[in-house]
Design brief:
Radius of gyration: 15 Å
Strand order of the largest sheet: 2-1-5-8-9-4-3
CATH topology: Pnp Oxidase, Chain A
Largest sheet: 7 strands, antiparallel
Strand content: 35-45%
Number of helices: 3
CATH architecture: Roll
Distance between the termini: 27 Å
CATH class: Mainly Beta
CATH superfamily: Electron Transport, Fmn-binding Protein, Chain A
Helix content: 10-25%
Shape: globular
Length: 156
């Protein structure tokens, strides 16, 4: 069996964010999808060792920002490689705003964001999967979403 075959399943690149009280965190994920139209539901998968996962488990809420092809590598590295356990990723960040649920989303390099409330969490080994109700969403523009394969080409 070649375990690499599952990497051929295409997805986008997203910034997943959460907030607990006054503490904010966000991370880059590549596994998110709509699973129902009515009611509007989505599922996201995030590394269980991330601070973002910890905040979602505690609060049951998150935002998902859909990244576009123009997102700079620095933004992806900032949210994808730096850890929220050691620093606040949102301090002095001019490209973020808070949605109605109080959680940050990126207002640049994105075509939309989705706010969600967790219905169920599943332990999937190294990942936590959150099945969630969509509580709010906003479309900014029709810029194309950055695919995971385009991201991999971009960082080469």
């Amino acid at each position: 069996m070649n375990k690499e075959a599952v990497k051929n399943i295409e997805g986008g690149l997203y910034m997943l964010s959460a907030r607990d009280g006054t503490y904010d965190d966000g991370c880059i994920i590549s596994k998110a999808m709509q699973i129902s139209d009515d009611p509007a539901r989505l599922v996201v998968s995030v590394d269980k060792n991330s601070k973002t996962c910890e905040l979602i488990e505690k609060t049951g809420r998150f935002n998902l920002t859909v990244l576009t092809k123009d997102v700079p590598n620095e933004t992806i590295k900032h949210f994808g490689e730096e850890t929220g356990k050691e620093r606040d990723k949102f301090t002095d960040n001019a490209i973020v705003e808070r949605s109605a649920n109080g959680i940050y989303y990126l207002n640049s390099y994105s075509n939309s964001y989705i706010s969600a409330k967790v219905l169920e969490e599943k332990d999937m080994g190294s990942q936590a999967v959150f099945i969630s109700d969509v509580t709010d969403s906003r479309i900014f523009n029709n810029s194309p979403t950055l695919s995971y394969s385009e991201y991999k080409e971009k960082i080469r």
